[in-house]
Specification:
The protein is an alpha/beta fold. The chain is built from 20 helices and 13 strands. It binds arginine.
């Protein structure tokens, strides 16, 4: 469907043309004085200069030529503004058309693209912490928005499973259990099928080994050596690595399931490894990769750089490959497997230099086609109420799981106190409200900004929160259930100003979605549904819906709130959460 603002602009442009003026002056905007009018056109002011006539005269001539069926008010205000209110009939037919169109008449991408979204980015054998939360939540929503517009989107979790952390874990384990066959270089038998650790044990090894490597140079050296040997294919280390993966990944999957975050591709840094040798050879042959102090680097600095631009490091002096190397090799793999039009990366904004470096390298060496768009969406930090990165009570890094269960507990208590859901629905209702609180709390902020995690505020049923949006949906569901079958109900002309405001808010869906899509910005969608929910609630409070005696009028109300519910539910689906039946 054509966007409402475009339709109105077309009508006003036609009037400019009919008055003998250039029609481009007819562009209309949403009014910034909603107390005076709904839309406005300032084109007469600009036209006045071009045609050497007073703006007021021009505006009057245009208004005279407007089709009065389209506007309930068309007023010229000095010095030459045209203030407009839409006619009830125009608005009714537009909203009714939205109701009948697929996806509310929002136009899809005319040329569907193939897009890889790299998000999540958990590190194997390290517990997921809240730094990974934002990547998962924002990435999932952006992915759903991209898909909504008709694109083919591949969400790739890009596991961190190939770097020094693996060397640290293996070296740490060797200290604890040196007798294991994995460490015996002369061992020729087959390795045990059972992993030599539980998940709990595994998660303790990394922090201990990491701390130790900072104070014990010999241990750090050993971990580097192990990393290199693992990457070179030493059988015992590879076997241990597979155990680490097998123990850790199901847990990572479960947490993402709980978050309702789903990936099309479960590849990791290690899957890029087979592409490294050829890539490195090519880069050397083309002169991009050069030796420097025993390491192999890819200089990416350019003339005119405003800040220092260090080279990508491909192979360290100890022979191990690094984050930059797997990043570039992953591009090789993605180009080969997906031939993407766009690759979007989500990670902490402190990684922006890394992405700048590898994007440059990929362009210079044509690892990525020139027409492929590469984009880094760096997000800010989730802070505690003290304004510092969110921590546990004893100052440690908060595990994602702990955060989720804390919210579940907090919300669960409310749900039980409210006593509106059956006992067997408490758990599922709690989960949905908790997800809405957590995700909306995050997504309603601009991704690049830091924000403060505040459970009381995020989980409140009033205010700009996820649960408030759910509450609005649930309220509509309950009215619809009381009304009964509403399949025959159609939108009618607005019966009061609140109905009109609600309908106007509905017409702003397409522009909001398009903006959220263009800017990969779920926060725009959050602002939109907050505004729409506000219009719904205002209408609900000011209008007798179920008590309305004029049955035709009542059907119009019902169609209107049913449409509002559908829009809200679609939007929260795109944000990554869903509403319960009651709350
Ligand atoms: N595993 C990384 C981390 O925890 C994030 C990975 C982001 N994606 C990427 N392609 N580099 O910081």
């Amino acid at each position: 469907m054509e966007k409402l603002l475009n339709l109105i602009s077309q009508r006003v442009s036609a009037a400019f043309e009919a008055a003998g003026l250039e029609k481009s002056y007819g562009a209309v905007t949403v009014s910034n004085r909603p107390d005076l009018c709904e839309f406005q056109c300032n084109g007469a002011l600009a036209a006045a200069k071009a045609y050497h006539k007073p703006p007021f005269v021009i505006a009057e001539a245009v208004v005279e030529r407007l089709d009065k069926g389209d506007f309930s008010m068309a007023e010229v205000v000095k010095p030459g503004f045209i203030n407009l209110k839409l006619s009830d009939a125009f608005l009714q037919s537009y909203v009714e058309e939205m109701r009948n169109a697929p996806d509310f008449g929002v136009n899809k991408e005319p040329q569907a693209k193939t897009i890889v979204i790299d998000y999540g980015g958990p590190n194997v054998a390290k517990p997921l912490h809240i730094g990974h939360l934002r990547s998962a939540i924002i990435g999932e929503s952006v992915k759903r928005i991209y898909k909504f517009f008709g694109n083919r989107v591949i969400g790739d979790v890009h596991l961190g499973d190939w770097g020094l952390q693996m060397g640290l874990i293996i070296a740490g384990l060797q200290e604890q259990q040196p007798e294991l066959p994995y460490f015996d270089e002369g061992y020729t038998g087959s390795y045990p099928e059972q992993p030599p650790f539980t998940l709990g044990e595994l998660e303790k090894i990394y922090p201990a080994a990491s701390a130790r490597s900072k104070v014990d140079a010999a241990f750090a050296e050993k971990a580097h050596q192990v990393t290199f040997e693992l990457q070179s294919g030493r059988p015992g280390y590879r076997a241990l690595w597979r155990h680490i993966m097998n123990v850790s990944i199901p847990d990572v999957r479960r947490i993402y399931e709980d978050l309702d975050v789903h990936f099309e591709s479960w590849l990791g840094e290690s899957d890029a490894d087979p592409y490294i040798p050829d890539m490195v050879e090519n880069l050397k042959a083309q002169g991009f990769a050069v030796e420097s102090n025993g390491a192999l680097i890819f200089p990416v600095a350019q003339e005119g750089d405003k800040k220092e631009m260090p080279p990508c490091i491909l192979i360290k002096s100890d022979g191990a490959v690094l984050y930059d190397t797997t990043e570039l090799a992953t591009m090789v793999q993605r180009e080969r497997d997906f031939h993407p039009d766009q690759i979007l990366y989500l990670a902490d904004k402190r990684q922006s230099l890394h992405f700048e470096q590898v994007f440059r390298a990929a362009r210079m060496a044509h690892i990525i086609r020139p027409e492929t768009q590469m984009q880094f969406l760096g997000f800010g930090t989730m802070n505690g109420k003290d304004g510092k990165p969110f921590k546990t009570r004893d100052g440690g890094v908060m595990r994602l799981e702990t955060l989720i269960s804390d919210i579940m507990e907090f919300v669960g208590k409310k749900v039980r106190e409210n006593q509106v859901v059956e006992a067997d629905q408490v758990e599922e209702t709690t989960r949905r409200i908790a997800m809405a609180a957590l995700k909306y709390g995050d997504l309603s902020n601009q991704p690049t900004k830091d924000y403060i995690f505040d459970m009381d505020r995020f989980a409140a049923f009033e205010g700009n929160t996820g649960p408030y949006i759910l509450y609005t949906i649930v309220r509509i569901k309950s009215i619809l259930a009381k009304f009964g079958d509403f399949a025959h109900c159609a939108v009618q002309t607005p019966a009061n100003p609140y109905a009109k405001d609600l309908m106007l808010a509905m017409t702003r869906l397409a522009p909001a979605l398009e903006l959220a899509y263009r800017d990969a910005a779920p926060n725009i969608l959050c602002s939109y549904i907050y505004e729409l929910a506000g219009a719904v609630n205002k209408f609900y409070h000011e209008t007798r819906i179920l008590g309305e005696e004029d049955l035709e009028k009542q059907q119009g109300y019902i169609a209107l709130i049913a449409l509002a519910k559908d829009i809200l539910e679609k939007c929260i689906e795109l944000l990554g959460f869903s509403a319960p039946e009651r709350m």
